[in-house]
Amino acid sequence: MWSTDYNKRIALFPGTFDPFTTGHESLVKRGLALMDEIVISIGVNDAKKTFYSLESRINAIRQFYRNDPRVKVMSYDKLTIDFAKEIGANFILRGIRTVNDFEYEKNIADVNRDLSGIETFILFTEPEHTHISSSIVRELLRYGKDISRFIPKGMDPANYNINK
Fold first, then answer.
1. Is 164 in the active site?
2. Residue 164 has pLDDT above 50, yes or no
């Protein structure tokens, strides 16, 4: 007999999401097959120059997932593991596009586990998304190129407020 008395499996999906891409969407979709809830967490990093304002990114992603109660969108300005503990997340979701991402993600996952006991699970990016990164999409935006094929269908970049 299945018990309904269990701990909810909550994964924190941290990132800048400037902008939120089809690769991010794929990770959330696939992560939801493993988790009860995913909290897309936009880290505030004053050292990074973003194209879109924090509020615009939060609003655009919330609007996109407005009909899925399993997805929440928040921002944070502390260590990822401290925020994960604060919201009750027991996992961190990360994606790897290429072998170059592996060492970086592995080292962070090891430190996070050592400091907090929170496990990181990594999903490999689907082949059709490996060439897509927020930094490449931002570059296209800076030069006025159409980015619609790199962001989720239904997410309109024109609705973002651009930092200028």
1. no
2. no
Helix/strand/coil (H/E/C) assignment for every residue in 71-122: EEEEEECCCHHHHHHHHCCCEEEEEECCHHHHHHHHHHHHHHHHHHCCEEEE
Q: Which residue has the higher pLDDT, 48 or 163?
A: 48
Q: What average pLDDT does the segment 100-105 reach?
A: 91
Pick the catalytic residue: 26, 41, 56, 134? 134
Domain definitions of the chain by residue range: 10-155
H helix or E strand, kind and range, residue 29 = helix 22-32
pLDDT digits (tens, 9 = 90+) for 104-149: 999 999 999 999 999 999 999 988 888 899 999 999 999 999 998 9
pTM of structure: 0.89
Residue 164: CB atoms within 10 Å: 5
Instruction: Name the active-site residue from 24, 57, 94, 129.
Output: 24
Helix (H, G, I), strand (E, B) or coil at 11: strand
* 10-155 maps to CATH 3.60.15.10: no
Is residue 134 part of the annotated active site? The answer reads: yes
| Catalytic residue (one of 30, 70, 97, 113) | 97
Does the structure show a pLDDT above 70 at 50? yes
